[in-house]
Amino acid sequence: xxxxxxxxxxxxxxxxxxxxxxxxxxxxxxxxxxxxxxxxxxxxxxxxxxxxxxxxxxxxxxxxxxxxxxxxxxxxxxxxxxxxxxxxxxxxxxxxxxxxxxxxxxxxxxxxxxxxxxxxxxxxxxxxxxxxxxxxxxxxxxxxxxxxxxxxxxxxxxxxxxxxxxxx
Length: 168
What we know:
Helices cover about 25% and strands about 30% of the residues. By secondary structure, it is α+β, with helices and mostly antiparallel strands.
């Protein structure tokens, strides 16, 4: 057995983090034909997607912030002002983000995370399925990951990542 010596450091360093990310990207690309096919295509980049709602006074009533990547919508934040909850605004914001992701960006699925005290039941009512449950994240709270298949706007769902030969 070979004994190797390493120096271990605990440090926040943006340059090292960027180097780590680049090296992991390179390793993953070499290991995965799907990721290799994405490199250099528009689908490789995360594209922000935001939907906003304003009340009659022009004040923010709610919003959704997320992004699309490859053929997926990722919802990062969805918020509706307490005065407007129960009026269907959250459903409208989510539906509009899904529409844009599906029709304008070719997305086939959506994913998000939510905590037990937030909105897992709301998302289930919108057609999302729980695919992961993490208890005590953070301690005392359960986190849910949910996904939803987005119906195709026209034609079948792509079987190849966007940007690969034969993919839409």
